[in-house]
Amino acid sequence: MGCCHSCLHYVLDYETPKTLVIQSKAVGFVFRFTQLLVILYVVGYVCVVQKGYQETDSVISTVTTKVKGFAYSNTSDLEHRFWDVADYVIPPQGDHSFFVLTNIIVTPNQTQSRCPELPTPSSICTADCDCTEGHSDPRSNGIQTGLCVNYSDTQQTCEVLSWCPLEIDTNLPKHAMLAAAENFTVLIKNSVTYPKFKFHRRNIMPQINSSYLRRCEFNRITDPDCPIFRLKHIVSEAGEDFQSMAVKGGVLGILIDWSCDLDWWAGKCYPKYSFQRLDNKNPNNSVAPGYNFRFARYYKTPDGEETRTLIKGYGIRFDVIVFGTAGKFGIVPTIVNLGAALSFLSLVNRPVTVTILLHLILYFSRTI
Amino acid sequence: MGCCHSCLHYVLDYETPKTLVIQSKAVGFVFRFTQLLVILYVVGYVCVVQKGYQETDSVISTVTTKVKGFAYSNTSDLEHRFWDVADYVIPPQGDHSFFVLTNIIVTPNQTQSRCPELPTPSSICTADCDCTEGHSDPRSNGIQTGLCVNYSDTQQTCEVLSWCPLEIDTNLPKHAMLAAAENFTVLIKNSVTYPKFKFHRRNIMPQINSSYLRRCEFNRITDPDCPIFRLKHIVSEAGEDFQSMAVKGGVLGILIDWSCDLDWWAGKCYPKYSFQRLDNKNPNNSVAPGYNFRFARYYKTPDGEETRTLIKGYGIRFDVIVFGTAGKFGIVPTIVNLGAALSFLSLVNRPVTVTILLHLILYFSRTI
Amino acid sequence: MGCCHSCLHYVLDYETPKTLVIQSKAVGFVFRFTQLLVILYVVGYVCVVQKGYQETDSVISTVTTKVKGFAYSNTSDLEHRFWDVADYVIPPQGDHSFFVLTNIIVTPNQTQSRCPELPTPSSICTADCDCTEGHSDPRSNGIQTGLCVNYSDTQQTCEVLSWCPLEIDTNLPKHAMLAAAENFTVLIKNSVTYPKFKFHRRNIMPQINSSYLRRCEFNRITDPDCPIFRLKHIVSEAGEDFQSMAVKGGVLGILIDWSCDLDWWAGKCYPKYSFQRLDNKNPNNSVAPGYNFRFARYYKTPDGEETRTLIKGYGIRFDVIVFGTAGKFGIVPTIVNLGAALSFLSLVNRPVTVTILLHLILYFSRTI
């Protein structure tokens, strides 16, 4: 009974530190000034600048792209040829990553057969005994048949089993074949979602109407909200020259930053576009500089034999990269940041802190 | 020596605030009640609801999809035609994003040649002088040759160099050609990894056996774990009508939420599916509503001339979007959240806080 | 006036807790030791191990891949055939996800026509009345015409409208047709960006020169920085056997971890490669184990009829998955972690804590 009573006493007694009030204006001033600094820091930096009171969420995004434009190439080896979207956009789906063909090496009418290897130190031969049947060097173009045949009037090379005739990719056109690609335009449709905040938005703003969309073109100053980009404009904003990039190809990033502050009004949340070359343009530190890949179109001759046209396509791959973080007031980060700030405030209440500060001030005031 | 002694004294002296014990039940009650509130908040909200003691990691995911089904179209312009997966799924690989063709405009037997432009205000002409050789309007279909030729019995338009005959894409079928696509099914295989926690899981749960997988179909109530989805079901759960969406196409998100609490038992971590239309279906605020793209199939005639079949394909692109955050007990977030909470508790120990609270309580008790 | 004076007094008065200095070496030692522990924890664990003072950012990445190698298949059903990159890499673009064909089932010369269904319990028939015109079972291969025709000398099945002849995919070659694919190599070019820190880097390090790149091959011990990987090596590092995986296909993840500490010198930030099989190799819990998809090549016969070659391709999809978090000193996390730590330190100043600790120590020292 007495134990219970004392226990209740312990629970309901309020224990508080005895405090001492020092009525010195100097000490009081230093104290309040330091408090002010801490509070200013907390309110000004943690809250206003860094938004420490916010919960964050990462963006989920979907992108659809549609390229428009056509070109006419009149280089000799491809005859005169007209190119439209179905020809030069690979793959055609208009995903978040699309490739625009700008330069090609075409090897038509390849069939599965035998032909002399391209002349390299290891393929040049003088007699059949220089070639090994079944040998396949990864750097060569096919499997040796063991014969040494005439490559040209002056050279003999080992015969290989391959898609013949072999591709000769050393004569890449100096000027991009589809130089006109710089005037193609691309419409980028981008929808984003912040699932934690149930926030959904598109890069085509509500105030943009259909007739504006039909004629506009992105420009950072005059048309910052237009989602239609001229390829030349994208490349030049990334600090590159379209024509020189088009020769050997490259990868170009279209970065869409959806960093949003969802606390105030949703209107503050809009996409910020930037452009950046993503591959290395420095040629002395890379194998296969630029961007190219080989693909083939398969045909059947009337007698059922399979032939293909091999295309080594150079071009610019545009990667639409969407990133961003949305912040919104959340109780946990607020508590955590405020709690941390209070810890600092309580430091100021310690006599030792104020004493140190006072001594520092006195020292500096004397030296001045 | 004396200095060292006093220094040791300073180091080993324990300095603690003098405290005052107030044996007032009212004050004690207010004090303990406030403490209780703070503790309740910390335990209840920060720990239980927000799981502030957890470290988090973002998901890494791989998706494989496989569509099944076939359809028969009997619209007049494409003759009667049978469609299977290799025909209507583009690209065929079954990536995290797959496209099901539902409606098409076919322009067969195009060749590189000359033909009259489609009649528009700018292409209609009366004499050759209305057309400029080499002129190419981005909105037209080719490069003008400078001639004015008969488009029909009544109209003359400028001749262009292009893939001829030109595509006429104004007569889109009102009813989706592949209406039967609504009964296609898709199997989605999804593996996720949380690298920080070395956690690995698939959306095909261990308890699912092969025979169940062969016959099941996702249904939120009866079969919530089945990874096979009927396309019609996906579209209707997203609040759309398959047949009307199939006409002009669209983009549909299959969202898989892998938010997991890895603290308790791993069995709690399972995928939650949701479906959402990602493009804008509102037609008055968009160019090119829906989703379509052009692709071509290239052929060679027996005499070696290249022809192509141009296909403008409309359809639904399904984007499988995997997101989620896993949380697991971590020492740093626990310390940080607990530390912040202690700061608040120490506030309660201040006499000024309790005094304010007491006055508030007295004020309210008097007014009532 | 008097009010203002007292108000000023209140503002400038410095209120500090009265403290009591206890000159007991035992108490002082316990106090300082506990302080030391807390400080050690904060400095050692939160700062050094967990880097609690850092702000973090997620990686943005672009990947380009290029496969090299050729193979020769001599299985009977495909005749002798030479395969190069344009044949076996699908899609050809060299994206972050690429597929290498290793085994195929080819069904050439399919046309839109009628043929007997493959014999299954539901397709075997004895008379026309067993087949329903227009009936299409999702598990069958086409739409029934209502006729019962000879499938073989001994069996009759319902006739279907489909791409004929039908694919028979039960005779998958036991040994992967492109077994030589294990010696193909892939060059992975990966650029990463941490937008918050304006940090940009490639997986081809500055010290790597062009001649090294031409001959090197990734090896964890001898060439850890070489971005060229032999497919066999990738698969074996993931704990799988290439030849057995090649038969039915699979999905293999090439994980690149770009976790970086950007505080010290940027040289510490380099990619760490790891490999992991992502699909389920356990065959008793999955429909369609492995990885395959169907695609077709379309041809036109001289008389204009469309035929296709249907290919069911099995192979390994390589997904390059880039992840990572960069950390750099940030003022907000520093404040928050330090604040939390200070809260713990202030706990030690409480007499109740020290009393408890003293009692514990006394208790243990007596029992020993």
TrEMBL record, chains A, B, C:
Pfam families: P2X_receptor. This is P2X purinoceptor. Glycans are attached at residue 183. Its main location: membrane. It catalyses: Ca(2+)(in) = Ca(2+)(out). One of its GO terms (biological process) is calcium ion transmembrane transport. ATP binds at residues 66-68, 185, 292-294, 312. Disulfide bonds join 115-164, 125-148, 131-158, 216-226, 260-269. It is a multi-pass membrane protein. The chain crosses the membrane at residues 29-48, 318-336, 342-364. It comes from the Eukaryota. Receptor for ATP that acts as a ligand-gated ion channel. The gene is P2RX4. It is found in: Cell membrane; Membrane. InterPro entries: P2X2_purnocptor (IPR003045), P2X_extracellular_dom_sf (IPR027309), P2X_purnocptor (IPR001429), P2X_receptor (IPR059116), P2X_RECEPTOR_CS (IPR053792). Belongs to the P2X receptor family. GO terms for molecular function: ATP binding; extracellularly ATP-gated monoatomic cation channel activity; purinergic nucleotide receptor activity. Keywords: ATP-binding, Cell membrane, Disulfide bond, Glycoprotein, Ion channel, Ion transport, Ligand-gated ion channel, Membrane, Nucleotide-binding, Receptor, Transmembrane, Transmembrane helix, Transport. Gene3D superfamilies: atp-gated p2x4 ion channel, atp-gated p2x4 ion channel domain. GO terms for cellular component: plasma membrane; postsynapse.
